[in-house]
Design brief:
The strands form 3 sheets. The protein has a 4-stranded antiparallel β-sheet with strand order 4-5-1-6, sandwiched between helices. A 3-stranded antiparallel β-sheet has the order 7-8-9. The protein is about 35% helix and about 20% strand. By secondary structure, the chain is an alpha+beta fold. The chain is built from 5 helices and 9 strands, in the order αβββαββαββββαα. The protein has 2 domains: about 140 residues, Reverse transcriptase/Diguanylate cyclase domain (Alpha-Beta Plaits), CATH 3.30.70; about 35 residues, no CATH class. It comes from Araneus ventricosus (Orbweaver spider). InterPro entries: DNA/RNA_pol_sf, Retrovirus_Pol_polyprotein, Rev_trsase/Diguanyl_cyclase, RT_dom. Pfam families: RVT_1.
């Protein structure tokens, strides 16, 4: 997140790319497919693609994404990719590079969830702008609607909720 904050300060154009059915784009090695087997009344089935719910699925997918965006002008968290650039021409060049790499890795984007060449984008629940990272009004509203704590346990819970936003609150 700190890398993203630093990069966002020098950015004019932003794009987010959401990968379609993230885990399902990774093939399960044929020798490991029996480990994913499940039984139904009408037969036994096994996955050819990595399903959600496998213990190692998030780490496996993140390793793939780390390899994917290495040496690319992008950052990724699981199936969410963000591209930041200072100029429109640079942004188009970055996007072309990323699209070619997506093709090489046989990864598909969910076009309905992608946003291209925006001045601000929502990424991982936060707003990324040329000024940096901002908390969305929906998050602020949710914290404001929490009833005032009346005991120690409720106070601890409230402070824990607020601590997620400490980077955005002066003198927290």
């Amino acid at each position: 997140m700190d890398d993203l904050l630093q990069s966002a300060k020098h950015t004019t154009f932003m794009s987010t790319i959401d990968l379609k059915s993230g885990y399902h784009q990774i093939n399960v090695h044929p020798a490991d497919r029996d480990k994913t087997a499940f039984v139904f009344p009408f037969g036994t089935f096994r996955y050819k693609r990595m399903p959600f719910g496998l213990r190692s699925a998030p780490a496996t997918f993140q390793r793939l994404m780390d390899m994917f965006y290495r040496n690319l002008p992008a950052m990724a968290y699981l199936d969410d990719i963000i591209v930041l650039s200072a100029t429109f021409d640079q942004h188009l060049l970055y996007l072309e590079t990323i699209f070619l790499k997506l093709k090489d890795y046989k990864l598909r984007a969910n076009c309905s969830k992608c946003h291209f060449a925006c001045s601000r984008v929502k990424y991982l629940g936060l707003w990324i702008t040329s000024r940096g990272i901002e908390v969305g009004p929906d998050k602020v509203s949710a914290v404001q609607k929490i009833p005032p704590p009346i005991n120690v346990k409720q106070m601890q819970s409230f402070l824990q909720t607020c601590s997620c936003y400490r980077k955005f609150i002066p003198n927290f």
